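Page 47, continued from p. 46.
Same chain as before, 185 aa.
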Amino acid sequence: MTPGESLAALLARCALHDRRAFEALYQQTAPTLYGLLLKLTRDRELAADLLQEGFVRVWQRAGDYRPTLGQPLTWLGSIIRHLAIDRLRRGDHRRRGELDDDGWARLADDGPGPEERLHGEQGDATLAGCLETLDPEPRRAVFLAYYEGLTHDAIAARLERPLGTVKAWVRRSLRRLKTCLEEDA
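Result:
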């Protein structure tokens, strides 16, 4: 493996059950994915468990990755994010840590968050361009739904907008993103 080997190449080698490629993939992506899990779960142990479970899933499904459909880190992030959301929705996790929201805020890193690192490192310019075509509030609703895993009810509460409005924003925004991405494909 070369030091600058791309994540896509590493995933392709993982699909062939190359353990060294899997180790390199883990080394390059685990910190970012762990940060995403911490943001979603606010529980270090749960985040570590989900990271391990996620990489098992990546090992098993590496052959499913298609470079034409998105960036490798985005694909990895979606696997991790879906695991976290499933676990949190099942309620099959320990209570959140002893800290209240202010305590977690004091512990938070002031650097870029997992979302910013995810986009910054892989820079999917097409998706970013398509997201920019959305109006600010609908774009925020999409981010809250897909990057923070919030339900429509939670988004409506956070944005202080009616539930029907939020649902319409998300539905229309996803249609616009699909059309935009198909045009640029």
